[in-house]
Amino acid sequence: MNLDLIYTELIAEHSQYSPYKGELEEATIRERGHNPSCGDDIHLDICIEDGKVAKMRFHGVGCAISQASTSMMIELLEGKTVDEAMELAETFIKMIKKEITSEEELAVLEDAMTFQSISTMPARVKCAVLSWYTLKKAIEKL
C-alpha cells in the first residue's frame, strides 16, 4: 500500500470518526482557535490534573485537515505533562515550518507526522497548525 494513501486514510479517519469530538464539562481550560481565511473554528476543552493533560475534547467546524490534526494532537497529548505537551506542540509547528525534518526527531509526533507534507501546501498550513497554536495559547494561561 502506498504511503500517501495510508496518510490520506488516516486523515479521513481522524476527521470523520474522532473519539475526541465533543465538549468536556470538567475542563479546567477552554480555548477557541479561529482561522478567518478558511473559516475553521475549533474549541479545545482541556482538563489539567496534577500537571498533566488528563483529558481533552474539541468541537467546532473545520476542514478535514484541521479536524484530523486536532484529533491526532489530542490522541498524542492525553496523559502527557503540560511541559511535554508544549514541547510536542513546538515540534509539530517546527515540522510544518520545515525547521525540523529529521524523521528521528519527528518520531515523537507519532501519527501527527502525517502532516509533514502539508508544509508544501501553503493554503493548508494554517488548517494543520490551528489546534496546536490554540493549545499553546491555552497552556500559557495556566
Task: Explain how this protein is built.
- The structure is a single chain.
- This protein is of the alpha+beta class.
- The protein is built from five helices and three strands.
- The protein has helices at 3-17, 64-77, 82-96, 103-106, 122-140, and strands at 29-35, 40-49, 52-61.
- A three-stranded antiparallel sheet has the order 1-2-3, with helices on one face.
- Helix 1 packs across helix 2 (64-77), helix 2 packs parallel to helix 5 and helix 3 packs antiparallel against helix 5 (122-140).
- The chain is globular and about 35 Å long.
- The chain starts with a helix and ends with a helix.
- The relative contact order is 0.19.
- Belongs to the NifU family.
- One of its GO terms (biological process) is iron-sulfur cluster assembly.
Question: Could you give a quick summary of the protein structure above?
Answer:
With 142 residues, this protein is of the alpha+beta class.
Q: What structural class do helix, strand and pairing data support?
A: alpha+beta
Low-confidence stretches: none
Question: N-to-C terminal Cα separation, in Å?
Answer: 44 Å
Number of DSSP-assigned strands: 3
Strand order of the largest sheet: 1-2-3
CATH class: Alpha Beta
Task: Outline the secondary-structure elements.
Elements lengths: L2 H15 L11 E7 L4 E10 L2 E10 L2 H14 L4 H15 L6 H4 L15 H19 L2
Helix pairs in contact: 1-2, 2-5, 3-5
Protein name: SUF system FeS assembly protein, NifU family
Organism: Cellulosilyticum lentocellum (strain ATCC 49066 / DSM 5427 / NCIMB 11756 / RHM5) (Clostridium lentocellum)
Family: Belongs to the NifU family.
